Amino acid sequence: MSEHHLDIISLGWTPQAYRPVWQAMQRLTRERGADTPHQLWLLNHTPVFTQGRNGRAEHILAPGDIEVVAIDRGGQVTYHGPGQLMVYVLIDLKRLGIGIRSLVSRLEQAMVDTLAGYDIAAYAKRDAPGVYVDGDKIGSIGLRVSRGCSYHGLGLNVDMDLSPFSRIDPCGYHGLAMTQIAALGGPSDLATVAADLSHRLADQLGLTPRFYEDADMRLIG
């Protein structure tokens, strides 16, 4: 049965445009049935700023040639780009028996545990969701819950150009510095980090992982 499984679906590591993946998440959540598996989608994006439902225009300082997309997750503005691991978390929270705060804590802990495996000491903040290293942000979380099911998810900085973050107030915090795994002595390969984080996420959710590779057309074709 799919009840106790987590389908971990890689969309490959060629950067994907944001909008088609967002629309696919919405569609799956809208059409989800009682037997639809819990899923994680793994990918990275072409450059984009996403502005959450609580976002304020003054936090977008100088977007330049990078598109700003107003979306339906919580939170403020952030940046996605090549070399940042995105994990979209498509979970039936009602079926799993957890709430949104518990999900956020589990996502944070999975990132912290993954980074600990690279000898990177990271931590979460109760008042500012995400994961930090020495005050710099390395992992972000933004979610939407509809019909008791989550979508959107987390972004973990692996090996990317961090300069676009200077064009915004990341997550609404002016001057918040960003960091990434490769700069802290960890791996620079997205697939390696994705595999490690996926196992940690499955453990945190109490589910058995099932892996699907390079499933682009299955989801967004």
The tally of beta strands, per DSSP, is 11
Task: Outline the biggest β-sheet.
Answer: 8 strands, mixed
The CATH H-level superfamily is Bira Bifunctional Protein, Domain 2
Classify the secondary structure makeup into a structural class: alpha/beta
* Principal-axes shape call: globular
Strand content: 25-35%
The CATH topology assignment is BirA Bifunctional Protein, domain 2
Please write the string of helix (H) and strand (E) elements: EHEEEEEHHEEEEHEH
- Largest beta sheet: strand ordering: 7-8-9-10-6-2-1-11
The total domain count is 1
Radius of gyration, rounded?
Answer: 16 Å
Percent helix: 25-40%
> What is the C-level CATH assignment?
Alpha Beta
Q: Total number of helical segments?
A: 5
Could you report the average pLDDT, rounded to the nearest whole number? 94
CATH architecture: 2-Layer Sandwich
Stretches with pLDDT under 50, minimum 5 residues: none
- How far apart lie the N and C ends? 26 Å
What does this structure look like?
- The chain is α/β, with parallel strands linked by helices and 221 residues long.
- The protein has a single domain (5-220), classed as Bira Bifunctional Protein, Domain 2 (BirA Bifunctional Protein, domain 2).
- It is built from five helices and eleven strands, in the order βαβββββααββββαβα.
- The protein starts with a strand and ends with a helix.
Task: Give the helices and strands, then pairings.
Elements: E1 5-10, H1 18-31, E2 38-43, E3 48-51, E4 68-70, E5 77-80, E6 84-90, H2 93-96, H3 100-116, E7 123-124, E8 131-133, E9 136-146, E10 149-157, H4 190-205, E11 208-212, H5 216-220
Helix pairs in contact: 3-4
